[in-house]
Design goal:
It is a single chain. With about 400 residues, the protein is of the alpha/beta class. The chain has 2 domains: about 240 residues, Alpha-Beta Barrel (TIM Barrel), CATH 3.20.20.20; about 120 residues, Sulfite Reductase Hemoprotein, domain 1 (2-Layer Sandwich). The chain is built from 15 helices and 15 strands. The strands form 3 sheets. Strands 8-7-6-5-4-3-10-9 form an 8-stranded parallel β-sheet. α11 links the parallel β12 and β13. α4 packs across α6. It is elongated, with a radius of gyration of 26 Å. The termini are far apart. The relative contact order is 0.08. The structure holds iron/sulfur cluster. Iron/sulfur cluster (SF4) binds next to loops.
Length: about 400
């Protein structure tokens, strides 16, 4: 019997906007976004990055449109891009109009930087005429000075009011194809701002921790903010803002959604034990080599690398495929069932080979093709390892004896 997957949260209802062919909000799969770091005027360089981002799993890519050369670049990029392109607009409303002319799928406007109501309404009118959505991208660091003063700083109320004011201006021209973000680099502020925003409006929300910095800190901050909200059912599209190759942002966004069960697995999910005194191999090295080799296959598969056969196959029984180290041998298992025993130096190779066969033939067929002698060999190897290492591979009994002696002395 197939088990019903555990759901992380019931998603809050939002209305839907279309970013090109990608639906955002209204129960659509949560999309992953990233932003190019090239000059948008460099058409080939920008397209190369967009293709790399699409291969890493992004659904939508944003490019800056800060000058006329960038808008002209967009006119060439948009028709050749595999994913919808959003133009990022800060100070110049004419750049927004130029980007619309270039055919972008959406605009991002920063209300803190583009402030004149007549210019904002002009852009909204043009977007409405072309059925192109706009994201109101409020940022704590560039909040409208008037709101900063009113709230004595960038508070959740200030960020949400900034978005609502812009929404009102859009409303004056009858434009409502709008997504909203209220990003901050301070994670608690970001979380509280989105919570308040989701209580205030049903427009789809774009989540992100702005200026999160380089990994691993940037990854941790972004995950803390985005995952907390997703686990509350808040958020329709996400972006990791890392000081790194944007492909890292794309991978992180994708992996977060897959880890939370919010998107189907598209690539590899490698799980590995942290290793301990029982292992006879360098688990970190084998896991990294396996990760690199298996990623190349682009298969939606969960693979386990376990440091020993004592606990490995059992603990990783949910994985599609795995390997556990025995005494100079690797025990290859599928869904926790031993299917082969291979020499230690062929562990990674065996994983790659089996992953390919699983992709071609399916799990059931590969289980049926298991080597019948493998279980006997694996059991013998496991028994020998247990005999060698005993039940107390980390020598905790010696430590416990020392503790007892110490506490008796005092
Ligand atoms: S007991 Fe085995 S599987 Fe568990 S951490 Fe130690 S080496 Fe890894």
């Amino acid at each position: 019997m197939t088990r019903k997957p555990v759901e992380v949260a019931k998603r809050r209802h939002t209305r839907q906007v279309m970013v090109g062919k990608v639906p955002v909000g209204g129960g659509a799969p949560i999309s992953v976004q990233s932003m190019t770091t090239t000059k948008t005027a460099d058409v080939e360089g920008t397209l190369a990055q967009i293709y790399a981002l699409a291969a890493a799993g992004v659904d939508i890519v944003r490019c800056t449109c800060n000058q006329i050369e960038a808008a002209e670049g967009l006119a060439q990029i948009v028709p050749r891009s595999p994913v919808p392109i959003v133009a990022d607009i800060h100070f110049h409303y004419k750049m927004a109009l130029a980007a619309l002319e270039a055919g972008v799928a959406a605009l991002r406007l920063n209300p803190g930087n583009l402030r004149k109501p007549n210019e904002i309404k002009l852009v909204a009118q043009e977007a409405k005429d072309r059925s192109v959505p706009i994201r109101i991208g409020v940022n704590a660091g560039s909040l409208h000075p008037e709101l900063y003063e009113k709230y004595n700083g960038a508070t959740p109320e200030a960020l949400v009011e900034s978005a609502m004011r812009e929404l009102e201006l859009f409303g004056e021209v009858g434009f409502d194809q709008v997504a909203i973000s209220v990003k901050a680099s301070n994670v608690p502020l970001m979380i509280e701002s989105y919570r308040l925003l989701s209580e205030t409006t049903d427009h789809p929300l774009h989540l992100g921790v702005t200026e999160a910095g380089p990994p691993p800190g940037g990854l941790i901050k972004s995950t803390a903010g985005i995952a907390t909200l997703l686990a509350e059912g808040i958020g329709d599209t996400i972006r990791y803002s890392l000081t790194a190759d944007p492909v890292e942002e794309a991978k992180a966004g994708r992996q977060l959604l897959e880890a939370l069960g919010l998107r189907e697995r598209k690539g590899l999910d490698l799980i590995a034990c942290p290793s301990c005194g029982r292992t006879e191999i360098d688990v970190i090295k084998v896991a990294s080599e396996a990760q690199a080799a298996l990623e190349e296959l682009h298969l939606p598969i969960q693979v386990a690398v376990m440091g020993c056969v004592v606990n490995g196959p059992g603990e990783a029984r949910e994985a599609d495929l795995g390997i556990a180290a025995g005494r100079h041998k690797g025990h290859l298992f599928i869904k926790g069932e031993i299917v082969a025993v291979v020499p230690e130096d062929e562990m990674v190779e065996a994983l790659v080979r089996e992953a390919q066969k699983i992709a071609e033939e399916g799990i059931e067929a590969r289980l049926a093709a298991a080597d019948p002698k493998a279980v006997i060999e694996a059991n013998k190897d496991r028994a020998e390892l247990l005999l060698d290492k005993g039940d107390d591979a980390n020598n905790s009994s010696v430590t416990i004896e020392k503790i007892r002696r110490k506490t008796k002395e005092s």
